[in-house]
From TrEMBL:
Molecular function terms from GO: DNA binding
Stretches assigned to the HTH tetR-type domain: 5-65
Positions of the DNA-binding region: 28-47
Protein name as it appears in the record: TetR family transcriptional regulator
Taxonomy of the source species: Bacteria, Bacillati, Actinomycetota, Actinomycetes, Kitasatosporales
Alphabetized Pfam families for the sequence: TetR_C_33, TetR_N
Superkingdom per UniProt: Bacteria
Keyword annotations of the record: DNA-binding, Transcription, Transcription regulation
Length: 198
């Protein structure tokens, strides 16, 4: 029988907090059970296992993150929206490293489609990029460029991997400017022109 007061929501929130405090890789069912002073087996009344817990963490963190990014871009377009979106992304990644790590796992396609947070994420990002006049397949390519750039910068910054004396904020601002220039000058293929085989 489930322990009184223990719910899936409380477990996932506690797991997300633990991820921020101790690192995503250190979130285990045993560690979570210790936090609630229960046996590991008690958790299975609420989650199916570690993978299920991590999926739920990803959805929780993804919802938190998109709420912040959507609020940041509201009423903005173009470079201003891009800078606000990128700033909210970076702030969340650096403030909540464990939660952010959870958002990087690959989710089952049907689960991502059914998730309101994931649908909203797609709407916000694609809306941001459509303002640059992009359509498919360029939209998907641009999303991948944006995600790779922001994730790469945040991951390296979080790991303390930038050793040059150049100010991190200045480099971040230049990276966002470079993304804006790239998006405004996106190389579009001519209709009917085949992709290079290289």
């Amino acid at each position: 029988m489930p322990r009184a007061g223990l719910t899936a929501g409380r477990l996932v929130a506690a797991a997300a907090d633990l991820a921020d405090e101790a690192g995503y890789e250190n979130v285990t069912l045993s560690a979570l059970a210790r936090r609630f002073n229960v046996r590991d087996a008690s958790l299975y009344a609420h989650v199916r296992g570690l993978h299920d817990l991590r999926v739920r963490m990803a959805l929780l963190a993804g919802g938190e993150m998109i709420d912040r990014m959507a609020a940041a871009v509201a009423g903005r377009t173009g470079k201003e929206a891009l800078a606000a979106f990128a700033g909210a992304y970076r702030a969340y990644a650096l403030t909540h490293p464990g939660r952010y790590a959870a958002t990087q796992i690959r989710l089952d396609r049907s689960l991502a489609t059914d998730s309101p947070a994931m649908r909203r994420t797609a709407e916000v990002i694609y809306g941001l990029l459509r303002a640059y006049g992009l359509d498919e397949p360029d939209l998907t390519d641009a999303v991948r460029l944006l995600r790779s750039t922001l994730h790469g910068y945040c991951s390296l910054e979080s790991a303390g991997a930038f050793g040059a004396p150049r100010d991190l904020e200045a480099s971040w601002d230049r990276a966002v400017e470079a993304l804006d220039v790239t998006l405004r000058n996106w190389p579009r293929r001519q209709a009917g022109r085949p992709r290079s085989g290289r």
